[in-house]
Specification:
It is built from 10 helices and 5 strands. The chain has helices spanning 64-74, 81-89, 93-101, 105-108, 116-126, 131-134, 139-142, 154-165, 169-179, 186-199; strands spanning 4-12, 16-21, 24-29, 43-52, 55-61. A hairpin with a 3-residue loop joins strand 1 (4-12) and strand 2. The longest helix is centred in the last third of the chain and has 14 residues, at 186-199.
């Protein structure tokens, strides 16, 4: 398995980024692609290669700890890569850990694809097993490259990224008026939207 890839980001989209390493472009699916930006600066992305009969994909993270949590989530019956990415995209792993430790199913079912059965399975499988992952530093999960809010398409890109994560149109449409009140970068819009969705605010 690849531990990490270093290179320059040549493409950023709602679902993945492309990192060029020595002339080879690696398509890397990330929780929130917009924490990265196209730049000539070399970056490091920690990776996880996901292999199944019908798919081979490369997932990328800003830290080893974030990758470790992704892998733990994948071990829960009912959670696939897409569901794990949606949980990690919130940038607030401490909230997830707290919900699991307190057996707060109401919070966990707010994530796309997580129903009551899966929420109960998450609690059963992960309770008491995640503190070592997030205790290192919560900041590692929200680490990102600063991005200037210069594009008028930032909000549209953020909304598209939310759809990729699995949020329904009706859920997204409820928070759009709140998001429109601020001028933010795509990454910041995504972070704010996820917190609104998880906190049930509009």
């Amino acid at each position: 398995m690849f531990d990490y890839i270093t290179g320059i980001v040549t493409f950023v989209g709602p679902q993945y980024v492309v990192v060029d390493h020595n002339g080879i472009g690696y398509q890397i699916v990330t929780p929130n692609p917009y924490v990265f930006k196209r730049s000539e600066e070399t970056i490091k992305v920690y990776t996880y290669q996901y292999v199944r009969e019908d798919v081979i994909a490369l997932y990328g993270f800003t830290s080893r700890q974030q990758r470790e949590m992704f892998m733990k989530l994948l071990n829960v019956s009912g959670i696939g890569p897409k569901g794990a990415l949606a949980i990690l995209a919130s940038g607030q792993p401490e909230q997830v850990v707290e919900a699991i430790e307190n057996e707060n199913e109401t919070f966990l079912v707010k994530f796309p694809g997580v129903g009551k059965k899966t929420a109960r399975q998450m609690i059963l499988d992960l309770k008491g097993k995640l503190n070592d992952v997030v205790a290192v530093s919560y900041d590692l999960f929200s680490e990102h490259i600063p991005e200037e809010a210069t594009s008028s398409n930032d909000l549209e890109e953020a909304l598209e990224a939310l759809k990729v994560l699995g949020y329904a149109e009706r859920e997204i449409s409820r928070i759009v008026p709140t998001l429109q009140k601020d001028k933010l970068s795509t990454d910041e819009y995504i972070r704010k939207a996820l917190q609104l969705l998880l906190n049930g605010k509009r």
